[in-house]
Design a protein that fits this description.
Blueprint: E1 5-7, E2 16-18, H1 22-30, H2 37-46, E3 48-53, E4 56-61, H3 62-65, E5 82-83, E6 88-91, H4 95-107, H5 118-127, H6 158-171, H7 177-200, H8 207-210, H9 217-241, H10 245-250, H11 252-273, H12 281-284, H13 293-304, H14 317-328, H15 330-355, H16 365-376, H17 389-427
């Protein structure tokens, strides 16, 4: 059987099949079975495929398109769109979607453009006969939730299907109305928890948290238990539906949730050990009991209750986006911190050696560094100030340098911030 190759002419017409002559076969046999350079050039040119999509020209190869014969571009049906005047195939379709579809032919993977609506992209996929993705195939469009977890992380089966649904319910408030209501309830409990945390430290209102005979004591205690119970239930259910154990404990939001409820359980355990003594902020601050080791632990745990404020981040995509922007602009931020460190140490040390003999405020270089940081950042608390004429001259120079210090790097950081923020906003 004779081999078939594409013929090609200089007028860029549609390639047609031809059978090589006996002469070309003899030449190929003389070259050890390899095609001549002329035939190789003809093969490369004949394999080029010109596609015009709404006025924009794309060039690919027939061999690339023929890998997917069930699609429009990979089947003979594409000949219906051949335009002799343009010497290419013409499609009056969305160009952004076509670039993604052409990427599918080239790589076997499909990605929807972030600037194209999902319905429009599905219409383009249907027109070009791109098959529906399958979860187990390499060409699938894999859905990713807000926690960065794919549906493929869950195994098949009825139980895992329910786990995936519950996980989506907890992580995506847009999945259903009930999920939206659950997230609103979570926000309400977070606000309640923060309010209790703030009121407990007030000398007048804090009596209700410590005095068992107070009429509001039982109500506040029950409210605190209800809030912690809700947080604990949400955390346990999320833990049971998480695809893998390691991923759960490496997730930042899960770590914050654990730290936010940990002080309550430590307080309960310590309360039971200390003969049912009520452990509160007022009692921890009592000098008579601060020497006990258990209360030292409580003072440390009390700090972690501040973490409850950061639970708001989970419910705000804008805050999450800002965190991503800061992470991507870390080089510029590190440069800013490095410059601040160099200037504060340099001018702090200089000011110390100028002022420490006549000014009792500059007791060490650390005090000088504190003055330099406050001055460079143009805050100026006024708690430390130079008194000598030389120190005032150095202070004036540092203040002027601080303005330049904030102006130059901050323009770079703000530009980077705006650029990354816009990209993340488009993705959302």
């Amino acid at each position: 059987m004779k081999a078939e190759v594409y013929s090609y002419n200089s007028y860029n017409t549609r390639p047609t099949l031809r059978t090589p002559t006996n002469n070309s076969e003899e030449v190929r046999r003389a070259n050890g079975g390899k095609a001549t350079e002329e035939e190789a050039d003809h093969l490369k040119l004949a394999d080029l495929c010109y596609i015009n999509v709404s006025g924009k020209q794309y060039i690919t190869t027939y061999s690339c398109l023929d890998r997917y014969p069930n699609t429009l571009l990979g089947s003979p049906d594409r000949e219906e769109f051949w335009i002799p005047e343009l010497k290419s195939y013409y499609f009056n379709r969305n160009r952004q979607c076509f670039e993604s579809i052409l990427t599918f032919y080239q790589t076997g993977k499909e990605f929807r453009p972030v600037t194209v609506d999902g319905d429009i992209y599905e219409e383009e996929r249907h027109f070009f006969r791109i098959e529906e993705p399958k979860a187990a195939t390499e060409d699938a469009i894999i859905p990713i939730d807000e926690a960065g977890i794919s549906d493929l992380c869950f195994s098949k089966g009825g139980w895992n299907l329910m786990r995936r649904r519950v996980h989506k319910f907890l992580m995506d408030p847009r999945s259903s109305r009930l999920a939206t209501a659950w997230h609103i309830m979570d926000i309400i409990f977070i606000c309640t928890s923060i309010t209790l945390l703030v009121l407990e430290t007030d000398p007048n209102i804090g009596v209700a948290f410590t005095d068992k005979d107070h009429r509001a004591y039982d109500a506040i205690r029950i409210l605190n238990v209800v809030v912690i119970s809700f947080f604990t239930t949400d955390l346990l259910v999320r833990f049971s539906t998480w695809p893998n154990l390691l991923g759960f404990f490496t997730n930042m939001f899960n770590i914050l949730d654990i730290l936010s409820i940990l002080p309550f359980f430590v307080t309960v355990i310590t309360d039971a050990v200390q003969d049912d003594t009520v452990i509160t902020d007022a009692l921890v601050d009592n000098p008579e009991v601060q020497q006990h080791r258990s209360y030292v632990v409580l003072r440390v745990c009390r700090i972690f209750r501040i973490v409850r404020v950061f639970k708001f981040i989970r419910h705000s995509q804008d805050l999450i986006m800002i965190i991503k922007v800061v992470a991507r602009a870390k080089k510029e931020l590190c440069l800013l911190v490095l410059l601040l460190f160099i200037f504060s140490v340099s001018f702090g040390s200089l000011m110390y050696y100028i002022e420490h003999t006549t000014n009792t405020q500059f007791t060490s270089i650390m005090q000088g560094c504190w003055w330099a940081i406050v001055t460079i950042t143009t805050i100026g608390y006024g708690d430390i100030a130079p008194k000598t004429w030389l120190g005032k001259m150095v202070g004036s120079f540092v203040l002027t340098l601080g303005i330049v210090f904030l102006a130059l790097p901050m323009t770079i950081i703000v530009g980077k911030f705006s650029q990354v923020y816009e990209k993340e906003k488009v993705k959302e």
